[in-house]
Hints:
It is globular and about 50 Å long. It has one domain (66-254). It contains twelve helices and no strands. The chain starts with 27 loop residues before the first helix and ends in a 9-residue tail after the last helix. The protein has helices at residues 28-62, 67-77, 93-111, 116-123, 127-137, 141-147, 151-168, 176-184, 186-193, 204-222, 227-234, 238-247. By secondary structure, the chain is mostly helical.
Amino acid sequence: MKNKNSLKKDSPRQGSDAQVRHPPQKSSLQQRVEQAQAVANVEKPLRKNLEPIIDDALHKFLGVTIEELNKDISEKLQKSPLLEFTIDTDVGFKTAKHRFKQEYLRRLLRVSYGNISEVARRAGVDRRSIHRIVNEAGIDVARIREEMIRPYEIRQKAVNTIIEDVLDHYKNVIHPVKFDALYKNVDSVSKNIVTELPKEDVSLQNAENEFERAFILKALFENKNNLSATAKKIGLRYETLLRKMKALKIKERSMF
């Protein structure tokens, strides 16, 4: 019996003249949909794995499960430690972005043991660009190589910062004694979950986009979504702000 899935031929085989009808090429839209589905399939198991681990780690000190707290920490932990940054809209957009690039590179150098070629590969830029940022920021690459801080330690420190940041928002709803106990043992909690974190690299371009989006959203919130006031506050022309919002897909429904 012939396989139903075998390729159909336009005519009976006649030596080398036999022609095979190839399946139609997928449209770019179909390809994008499949890529998005593939990414979702990879991310789902990670999110399912993290929340129980976070719950177990926190339950030891809280004695109860706070679903919203677990969810908030889990969502923040989905991101690479390279994307954890402080946003200060008082210094203006350009200065803040410049500082972010320097900190992003400093962290990437640490987890790469100061290897410029490795940093360039992981950041998705050429070595010359890395050297330029290093020189501008005054980063001591030789010292980073001497310190040889383990990537695990850097990741754990980032997890500590995330947990402490989220906990601050729940300070008024958690019993003071339990809150203090948990806060003092953040290091212990982070050790239980750091090995479950996603470890994929984040390119400099993607990191900059993430930073710009977070910065603009915060500035809009601080200025009550007034575009003119926001542009003036962060030192951008009104038209430039609109262009960036469009590029970063920041719409009114995306604002706080």
